[in-house]
Structures are given as structure tokens and as C-alpha cells.
Design goal:
This is protein PIN-LIKES 3-like isoform X1. It is a multi-pass membrane protein. It comes from Cicer arietinum. Belongs to the auxin efflux carrier (TC 2.A.69.2) family. By secondary structure, the chain is mainly alpha-helical. It folds into 2 domains: about 350 residues, Na+/H+ antiporter like fold, CATH 1.20.1530; about 70 residues, no CATH class. Helices cover about 70% and strands about 5% of the residues. The chain contains 18 helices and 3 strands. A hairpin with a 7-residue loop joins β1 and β2. The radius of gyration is 26 Å and the shape is globular. About 10% of the residues have low confidence.
């Protein structure tokens, strides 16, 4: 197919995304007061807990089978590689331009996590709907494209909330710890044994005091008393292990790791792979087919809602666009130049040695995963920790503005490459 025709096919989905994004920005203006902060948060909550899991679940349930799971095994590895290579390039960027410490977690996260959910769910099915699309029959292309994009979204959700979430958390915790240390430089612990007994230990925490002041005055003015009864302060080994496991579980934060869209993906995969569930929900004239149809209807509302939220969030980045110019340029270079070039080498190499099955649409999505702007979830993560929210909005505005051009060009080249 001629390059110009491929360019037109690639341009139409991006224009659709731009139009809906512009509408979201338009609705969030003060003059209309429709998608202001409260409304955006409420809609974001509905998308997060209802629309996204319904969309992922319905798409995977309809198209994923035990056979297709085997053929699509490379996608989780491909998505993981985008995160690892992006994070490595982000680390080089941080060192090269000497990014301020409080922005390093944000920079690493934006370089590592691409928008592997919203944009593929819009672009890939939309490409199939275009007249003269290079991927064959419209219905088959649309069904497979939606399944591939849904699986991409589910895998990315796991990696974002397990890898990127913890990267931002580590840097935000280090910042808060430094502040705490600065605020408590005069605090020293003072401990004593009461009544000469070894089985009760009383500790007083407060500013250091001179020796001529009594412990009683010290406690009265500054102290916090903590008593450990019936023991010498030694914790049994079994209790220490249990405590360490609890701390590890808190650090992993399973509640965050298993986001609603991830749970939806798991449910969808189970329905698709287990034959009895497919007969009850998916096949023609299924007994519970109305349930699947209802989930599909709810999920279909997710794509426009997600895109409207992108537009509403980008409006926040209009302020201070020039303050982080070197960092913005660096992230654009990483996500729109270096990652796609590396991705071409990885995917074409995997095709050459026979790791990827010969479906041009599947190969197109694997390549596209390397050329996407930062994940919208970065805004949510920075809000959770209250770290660099303004800078994140600026980066989102700049990168998504550039994505309108880069995605069109890369999509055109990728289609030409896989055909």
C-alpha cells in the first residue's frame, strides 16, 4: 500500500483522539464549569472502578481463548521491555541534565510508563474501521484489535502500579524523610529503667536536655512515654518474621497492585479460557448472554470518558509550560525517538527468530507500544503522593501535543513495516 494512503489511515484515529481531547479541555474551562476539578474526579472514579474493568473484561472474554493465550505470550514481555528500557533511558536523562531531586521520580515514571491503555484502545480499532485499512476484514480486525489493546491495557496496569508507583513512592518518601530530619535535629531519645526493674522499660523522646534537668521535668514538657511490659524488650524470632512479612505486604500494597482493570482482565481471561464460562456468556444464544451484553455497553462508555479526562487534565499544564523545558524535551526525545527506534529492533528481531506469530495487526500493536506518550496514570500517582503535580500536568500537555504528530508518523511507518 502507498505510503500516503497509510498516512491517511493513521491520521484519522489520531484526529479523533484530538477532537475528543479538545472537547474535554473545552468543557473544563471556567466559562462552562462542566468538567471542573470535582466533576473530573468523580468521572475519573467512575472510569477507574466501572468503565475500564468492564471494557477490559468484555473485550478479553470475547476474543481470548486458551489457544490465543499461547500465541500472544510475547506481549507481556514486550510491555515489560518498554518499562525497563524507558526507565534506563530516564535514568540517563536524569543524570545528563541534572534533574532536581524532587522531580526525578516523575521523570523516571514518565519515561518508563507509556499510555498502553487509552490510546491503543482508541487507535487500533479506529484504524480497522478506516476505509482501505491494511489489516483485512473490518469485523475481524476490530475484534482482534480490541482484544490486543485490552490485553495491553491489563498488562500495563499491573506494571504501572507495581513498578512506576513504587518508583514515585520511593522518591517522595525520601523527600519527606529529609524534611522530617531537618525538623527534628534537636530530638534525642532518653531512656531509663523504672523502679530498678529490668522488665519495664520507659523511653522519653524529646529535645536533648542538660544533665541538671530531671527526667520528670523532661517528660512533663516534651516526652512521649512508651512502656513495654512483661519483658526485656527482646522480640521473639517468630514475631520478628511475622512483623517483617507485614511490612513487606504493606510495601507491595496488593490493593493498589490489583487495580479494578487488572481484576477485570483476570475475570475476562477466565471467562475466555474456561469453556463452560464461554458457553454460558459468550457464544450465540448463551444463557447468560444478556450479562455479557450489559458489560459491553458499560465498557463502551469508557473510551470517550477516558479521552475527555485527558483533555481536562491537560488544561492544568498551560501554566508554567516553559519552566521545565530541558526535562520536557528530554522526555519527548526518550518516548518519541529513542524508544520507537529501539522497539523496531526488538520486534523485528523477535519476528526474525520466530517468537511472534505472523499477524500484522499484532505486530503493529507491539511496535506502537514503544511510541506512546506517558501514561495518564502518572497524574493519579503524583496526586496520591502530593509530589510534583504541577510539573506532571506540564509534561502531559507538552508530550500529548507532540504525540499528535509523532503518533501519526510512527503509525504510518509501522503499518508500512509490518505489511
Amino acid at each position: 500500500m502507498e505510503f500516503w494512503k497509510l498516512f491517511v489511515v493513521a491520521l484519522m484515529p489520531v484526529l479523533k483522539v484530538l477532537l475528543i481531547t479538545a472537547l474535554g479541555t473545552f468543557l473544563s474551562l471556567d466559562r462552562f464549569d462542566i468538567l471542573k476539578e470535582t466533576a473530573s474526579k468523580n468521572l475519573n472514579t467512575i472510569v477507574f472502578f466501572v468503565f475500564s474493568p468492564a471494557l477490559v473484561c468484555s473485550s478479553l472474554a470475547e476474543t481470548i481463548t486458551s489457544r490465543s493465550i499461547i500465541t500472544l505470550w510475547f506481549m507481556p514481555l514486550n510491555v515489560l521491555l518498554t518499562f525497563i528500557i524507558g526507565a534506563a533511558l530516564g535514568w540517563l536523562l536524569v543524570k545528563l541534565i541534572k534533574v532536581p531531586y524532587h522531580l526525578q521520580g516523575l521523570a523516571l515514571g514518565c519515561c518508563a510508563a507509556g499510555n498502553l491503555g487509552n490510546l491503543p484502545l482508541i487507535i487500533v480499532p479506529a484504524v480497522c474501521k478506516q476505509k482501505g485499512n491494511p489489516f483485512g476484514d473490518l469485523d475481524i480486525c476490530h475484534r482482534n484489535g480490541l482484544a490486543y489493546a485490552s490485553l495491553s491495557m491489563a498488562i500495563a496496569s499491573i506494571y504501572i502500579w507495581s513498578i512506576v508507583y513504587n518508583i514515585v513512592r520511593i522518591y517522595s518518601n525520601k523527600i519527606s524523610n529529609e524534611v522530617k530530619v531537618d525538623d527534628s535535629t534537636n530530638i534525642t531519645p532518653v531512656c531509663a529503667l523504672e523502679n530498678g526493674q529490668e522488665n519495664i522499660s520507659t523511653c522519653y523522646v524529646g529535645p536533648s536536655v542538660s544533665n541538671d534537668k530531671s527526667h520528670a521535668d523532661h517528660v512533663k514538657q516534651f516526652g512521649i512515654e512508651c512502656t513495654i511490659p512483661n519483658g526485656r524488650g527482646k522480640v521473639p524470632k517468630k514475631e520478628r518474621i511475622v512483623k517483617q512479612l507485614k511490612v513487606l505486604a504493606e510495601k507491595i500494597n496488593l490493593k493498589v497492585l490489583f487495580a479494578p482493570s487488572t481484576i477485570g482482565a483476570i475475570v475476562g481471561l477466565i471467562i475466555g479460557v474456561v469453556p463452560i464460562f464461554r458457553k454460558l456468556l459468550i457464544v450465540d444464544n448463551a444463557v447468560l448472554g444478556v450479562l455479557q451484553d450489559s458489560i459491553v455497553m458499560v465498557g463502551d462508555a469508557g473510551i470517550p470518558a477516558m479521552t475527555l479526562l485527558v483533555g481536562a487534565n491537560l488544561l492544568k499544564g498551560l501554566k508554567g509550560l516553559g519552566k521545565q523545558f530541558p526535562l520536557i524535551v528530554g522526555i519527548i526525545v526518550v518516548r518519541f525517538i529513542l524508544l520507537p527506534v529501539i522497539g523496531i529492533g526488538i520486534v523485528k528481531g523477535a519476528i526474525h527468530i520466530g517468537l511472534i506469530h505472523p499477524d500484522p495487526l499484532y505486530q503493529f500493536l507491539l511496535l506502537l507500544q514503544f511510541a506512546l506518550p506517558p501514561a495518564v496514570a502518572m497524574s493519579t500517582i503524583t496526586q496520591l503522593f502530593g509530589a510534583s503535580e504541577g510539573e506532571c500536568s506540564v509534561i502531559m500537555l507538552a508530550t500529548y501535543s507532540c504525540a499528535a504528530f509523532s503518533l501519526t508518523l510512527w503509525s504510518t511507518f509501522f503499518m508500512w513495516l509490518v505489511l
